[in-house]
Amino acid sequence: MKILNFILLFISLNAYTQNTTNSSTNITINSDTSTVIELNNQAFKVRLINPDVTIAKANRALNLAVKLEYTNGIAESFRVKGIGNSYKNSIDSAVENYLNALTYFKKGKNLPGEAKVYNNIGNLYRDIEPNKSLDNFNKSLAIAKKLEIKDLIAGLYLNIGTANQKLKNYSKALSYYKSSLSMFNKLGNKIGVIQSHQNLGVLYFNLRDYTKAEVNLLEALDMAKAEKLNNSAASINLTLSSIHIAQQQFEKAERSIEEGLVYTRMLKDERLEYNYILTSYELENKRKNYFKALGYLQQAYKQDSVRYANNISDKISLLESQHVQLEKQKESELIIARQKYTQTLFLASSIVALLAFFVIFLLVRNVKRSSQTNIELTRLNEEVSKQKDVLDRTNQNLEELIEERTRDLKIKNKKLSEYSSHLSHQIRSPVATLKGLMLLENDKLIDMSEFVEQMGKCVDDLDDKIININENLNNPNRSSFTNDD
Q: What's the pTM value of the predicted model, to 2 decimals?
């Protein structure tokens, strides 16, 4: 009876200790997951103010979420990090982050998360391939309507309107913008209201209704300044300067450019600064300050060349970071597998220990049953060994699956990044040269023979680049784009 009492005491103490440990662990995990959520929320809120802070906070959230094996936290961290990179025009990094987020959201069966990522991917395609952009927006909208996510629906209306504006479906764009503005006003979403007014201003500018365009843009600008949204203030001033140029209000245009550049340089946004250079060129050309206009045009051409060189450097850095990330991901998967194996082993060991105590008790009670008890112990040990073999095979299958998905992601990332950077560099340079020649010819600053000769060279160069891009896109056997520069 003393031995039986000892075993019962051991079991009750073990159960109490286990429950206490689990309770303490749950409190810590809940606290830590709340930290992940808070960091991601903070990162998202500052995306229009300082994208660098967005990326830094998302990285902190990601590291903590990985330690906690918090799938939804990992997914959201990747998504927010992708948003930060998209505002910094680091498209390759943004694509990588969004694809990782989508993988983890699907793993966690998180439909709202999937909808957000489809919306983010649609925004990446918006200026390059509006039709692909609409495909992703519609995927997101179907989920958002099913789950009645009103903020996301309002944002998607705004983005679908912009995609339609890119396709010059202005009536559709106007309808979506108005619906978006109405929803954001009802929801009290100030950022959404700002973006809706801003997009309406751009639309009315394209329709040459400069009065309505200016009213919407000025309202958006006042709200953006009040909310300290540097990114919005910079882009709104860019559109306002174009409106002022179109109305021959050159001094207003110059003030808008100067103010917008202040915000742009605070953001360190090279792409937006490049657009301001082109707008400054347009302003000086309208003023007939041709020498100054030519200077802006040369500055734009130099920035194109620097951007191309930086893209090559970014690709190399991206490959290195991908390699590091893949190694970390493999390490995380191995840690998770080891932890599961350790837990299983601990459970099996506990069972074996309890059985051992029970066997000792039986041996004291009845020596005659010793042989039968030994056989039972042997069988249990064999079962534990078989469980270990099954776990080993499962770990091997997991590693093979990770490698296969990794290869697929790297191929997709490489194709998309090569297409984006190559297209922007290859086409922009000859087009900028053509525009410069046409302006020189309109103002009779170049001989006709030289004009025709230079136009011919530019057209040949543009034709060669387009043929080269088409060949690379339609030839699956070519792994990268060639450089004709």
A: 0.53
